Amino acid sequence: MWRDPIEVVPSYYRMLLGRGAKIENYTDFADCTSDKWIQHVTGYLYDKSPTTMYFMEYRKLLADTHNEMNSMLDFMGWSVSEGNLDTAIKNSSIDEMKKQEETMILRDLRRPGISSINKNYRFIGNKFLFEGEGQGASIIENKCRGLVSILRA
What is d(CA 141, CA 138) in angstroms, rounded to the nearest whole number? Predict the structure, then answer.
């Protein structure tokens, strides 16, 4: 599964900050991380080993979960009943995952020092952004645009 780097890099940044990482400059972080994303994805894309790969885009999986999962299962040669697939999808739904996440977030917010992480957040719509994310996003988009186009083809 691959995810657009314009979404991956800020998400990774937030995760690292949440774990206490000290990152001084988001733009430099975005530049370095997008290079690593390119190396990681091209390593799989142009792998010469006999292993066959199935590339699934995260965004498409969210938009049409049932058909994307069926395509992957067909690729793997697995036969899964519609009922079992529907149950698996339901139990892995955003709503179900949010319930689990809310429980974890409430637990984590009780941890000492967690509020110090939140001072760099700002909300735009329903999304967290950090200082410097705008400039970092343009770096990521410019560096990764070609590879994203290949993956979506």
Answer: 5
